[in-house]
Amino acid sequence: MSENGMxxxxxxxxxxxxxxxxxxxxxxxxxxxxxxxxxxxxxxxDSVSALRPSAYSLGDSSEEADRLCKLVMDGTKRAxxxxxxxxxxxxxxxxxxxxxxxxxxxxxxxxxxxxxxKVTTVAFQEAGPEIAMAEGEGTFAQWKAEHDxxxxxxxxxxxxxxxxxxxVLTEYFEVLYSx
Length: 179
Known about the structure:
The protein is of the alpha+beta class. Helices cover 35% and strands 22% of the residues. It has 6 helices and 5 strands; from the N terminus they run ααβαβαββααβ. Helix 5 (129-135) crosses helix 6 (140-158). It is globular and about 45 Å long. The chain starts with 19 loop residues before the first helix and ends with a strand. Residues 1-10 and 44-50 have low confidence and may be disordered.
């Protein structure tokens, strides 16, 4: 933002949180099309509203989320990578095989219901081209440079030190429904 409160030219815009009403409508449609019994999704939670999977956007700007969501929708992107220390800093659980999630674009509009099919963890320095291929975002060199910058920004925002030898979690997923 500039001093007058206007967005600066070429600065990435912030992600918008999805609205509950949009998520509920998407979830209702997606679980019917994908033939999912919501009671099988999350067992043991005491709130009926918790049966809806978590929703998120990929990337850290609206433009990036739009681009990555399109890659998921067209089948190019079949995985996403995260910094393990970020989960620890936020006291968040690691993804597990079988979990469902709703992937949104940068405006918070839900577009994809995905199921985690595989989770791997590897030292960032040991990540290989197979991860870049599954993420569908370009060459391995591009993946490495973009993720290095992304993880550094994320660590800075969380107030944790970036360790180039840290662990990367790659979550592979299958698209159950998209629109």
